Amino acid sequence: MDPIKPAKVVKDALEKAVEKVADLATPPIPGAPGSAPPPLEEPTGPKPAPPRKADQGSPETRTATGARTGADADVREQQGEYLTTSTGARLHDTDHSLRAGRRGPTLLQDHHLREKITHFDHERIPERVVHARGAGAHGVFVGYGNATNVCKAAFLDEGVTTPVFVRFSTVLGSRGSADTVRDTRGFATKFYTSEGTFDLVGNNIPVFFIQDGIKFPDIIHAAKPHPDREIPQAQSAHDTFWDFVSLHTEATHHVLWNMSDRGIPRSYRMMEGFGVHSFRLVNAEGGTALAKFHWKPKLGVHSLTWEEAQMIGGVDPDFHRRDLYDAIEAGAFPQWELGIQVFPDTPEQTFEGIDLLDSTKIVPEELAPVQPIGVLTLNRNPTNFFAETEQVAFHLGNLVPGIDVTDDPLFQTRLFSYLDTQLSRLGGPNFNQIPINRPHVPVNDMFRDGFHQHAVHRGVAPYKPNTLDGGCPFFAGADTGALVEVPQPVAESVKERRAHVTVDDHFSQARLFYRSMTPVEREHIVRAFTFELGKCYEQAVKERELRVLANVDADLCAKVAQGLGLPAPEPTEVPADVTPSPALSQLGGEWPADGRMIGIVVDADDPDGLADLHALRQSISAAGMVPLLIAARGGTLADGLVAQRTFLTARSVEFDALLVASAPAPAPDALPQRDAKAGAPSLTVDPRVVLMLQEVYRHAKAVVAWGTGPTALAEAGLVPGEPGVVVTETAAQALEQLQGLLPAHRVWERFPASAV
């Protein structure tokens, strides 16, 4: 089979699909709750419902059977200027129930009360068992056209622009959990293609805990909160999880990924995505190949530090959602390239000795390079979270011609499970008629009736064959775009329950992953294992997992055992001889700084520190980043400069870097009884600024100061000249220095890895 030829990015198609923020003279700060600033007093006169915000979109207006209506998206939004019942009767009051006299009982006659309360009682649907907490956005995918020799799917053709909806999520927690917990993340993409809907439902980790889908309830039950107390929420640092994975050692590879920095991504925008399974691709001539899908973020793959993740969980549990929505609103549209690893479709379905049907294994990119085949851009936020993000329904069986499944037993079970889940979660079989799920092609499925049926079907013969409806609908052939399964031989064998994998190897790829990390990343893995196992109650669980780690890597096991105060056991298997894969490390490259949050510490009483801030903020915005002024108080500081954060409301974890224009003296509210962050009193610099600088330093972020700012650095114990701690003469020089530091994301050389 010919190799995929490189192709240029289809710039014209992408530029048409992406709106750029043009006005940088007064850069907007994302996060405004409404489409217009509210008045001080409550409005009394009737007015139309406010429009959507400029960054928001909605599902296309399609009928339940996929036809384009031509109507604007606002036809689904609230209509009219007056409050009404659900049937349109105008209401004069919704604050008081209908009662028998002023102090009498409420009347059963109050139909508005009953309607209002009944709807409220039922406005929640069952949340997803996994991936309950999510965030979504609309966008477009543009094909490069260089995949046609292996896949005939039309949306991959050169310049084809396909609408998409993407949902990111955590796996373990409920909808009320925090974004920054250590967990696997979902990365699910719904392509509204010209040949039907294609769902690529993957994760930010390329392997899974299990090889066979029959074990899925077990791993989820083990990882979820303990059933007696329903705690801990959204965490794996507890006994049932480690009890399971220490016994079920095929989970070891995924556990290593989860304990690495991949388990706490910096944002969804800086998160890699994987299809996990091997898919079978088909080209126009009927030739087949096996492939794995990869999403490569244009901003690089970056993570939080563990302390940051813990702090953010309390300070801003919606951190990842807010980051995604604010970036899109600010015009810093997140982008990923879709790539594929391609393998020959051999009867063994292996590559370089790696079983391609084993979802606990990867193929290192050094053996099979990831070849980019298109680019995804997210450019619209949802208009309504429930209607879109919460009701979107993904299914691995949503395929298009050119993409087929394989016999991976985890894949096979997911083909059943996702469809079955929607039936209970979305109330019946018609969930694909919900606007966010509607395909963008004609639908004639012969399905009838059921809960929430929106289509009004005509005809009398929803069956095949028929003559009463003229034989309609008719079958399509492969030459008319039919989705035809690839005929594959099935090995002659007996029905039995046994592992499908060719080699019972649970440790070599976990060792490969650990050995591929830089020393800094290995330190983080050691810390994660030590923390998680240290939270377990049962000593036997800790000791058993140490035996697993001994078979992965002696250095890893020894360091974790030291932290737990336990002896390091000897391995029971000879450690595999592995060749590290540099592609698995997040560090060592440089990436764009688009959408980074830059905090600027200022002092309203320091005119020199405020002098160049207009130009500085404009330059930061022009570079695709978001500047946020931090001062002792909110509101206008001077000359139209507005503080977006105060020392009371700001916390270091919100920012990717700090610029320090001044050394503000302690503000009147710098009192421990008013703000615990004030801590010990300081005679020269507000203690909350000192704390912020110390946290930023601990988290390996860049700090640049000028003017009186170096005084604040000194108060915090930061020494200019240390990695990532810079002092300049002017604000312009400060930004120049910062732009030189940000591409590496963090200043890890500030903290050399331990030798012990």
Automatic annotation (TrEMBL):
Name of the featured protein: Catalase
This protein's UniProt keywords: Heme, Hydrogen peroxide, Iron, Metal-binding, Oxidoreductase, Peroxidase
Q: What does this protein do?
A: Decomposes hydrogen peroxide into water and oxygen; serves to protect cells from the toxic effects of hydrogen peroxide.
**Region entry Disordered, spans:** 21-103
Q: Which InterPro entries match?
A: Catalase, Catalase_AS, Catalase_clade2, Catalase_clade2_helical, Catalase_core, Catalase_haem_BS, Catalase_immune_responsive, Catalase_large_C
PROSITE patterns in the cross-refs: CATALASE_1, CATALASE_2, CATALASE_3
* Family statement: Belongs to the catalase family. HPII subfamily.
Q: EC number(s) per UniProt?
A: 1.11.1.6
- MF-aspect GO terms: catalase activity
Span of domain Catalase core: 84-472
Q: Where is the composition biased (Pro residues)?
A: 27-51
Q: Which organism is it from?
A: Saccharothrix longispora
Q: Which cofactor does it need?
A: heme
Q: Which reaction does it catalyse?
A: 2 H2O2 = O2 + 2 H2O
Q: What class of enzyme is it?
A: oxidoreductase
Bias class Low complexity marks the residues at 61-70
